[in-house]
Design the sequence.
């Protein structure tokens, strides 16, 4: 897994490249369908699996947030607005391996950048494990605080 953090004048950016031993269509199904995404991010579902539709984030207690799907190209690419920022998933198949490239951009006005980056870092690892083994990564097996602290230091967010 290759992870890069950077900033520009207005935003913080995270890029994660991970090799997954699977097929592009299988990984895309995990990322781009309600059936797939619920296996690693159970609070999410697609209103419709297409650009211009929405991703629905179930906050519990009948409260929801919506993310506009900006790009939806089966087996290749999904992008959507995530709160004040944007996330992007791209797939490239090389033999029996798929490279998943995840990009996230958040404005500095977003108050919990490091927490959000940490959450997506965990979720990308979970997608890899799910695609390769059939089981997502356990939240209990991940040190969220240490990763968040590392990201805050790397991006100089303190």
Sequence:
């Amino acid at each position: 897994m290759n992870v890069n953090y950077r900033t520009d004048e207005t935003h913080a950016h995270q890029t994660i490249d991970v090799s997954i031993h699977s097929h592009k269509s299988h990984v895309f199904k995990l990322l781009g369908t309600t059936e797939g995404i619920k296996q690693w991010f159970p609070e999410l579902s697609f209103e419709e699996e297409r650009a211009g539709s929405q991703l629905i984030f179930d906050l519990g207690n009948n409260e929801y947030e919506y993310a506009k799907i900006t790009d939806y190209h089966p087996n290749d690419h999904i992008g959507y607005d995530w709160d004040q920022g944007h996330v992007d998933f791209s797939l490239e198949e090389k033999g029996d391996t798929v490279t998943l490239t995840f990009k996230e951009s958040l404005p500095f006005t977003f108050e919990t950048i490091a927490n959000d980056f940490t959450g997506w870092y965990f979720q990308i690892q979970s997608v890899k494990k799910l695609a390769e083994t059939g089981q997502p990564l356990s939240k209990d097996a991940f040190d969220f605080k240490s990763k968040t602290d590392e990201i805050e230091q790397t991006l100089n967010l303190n």
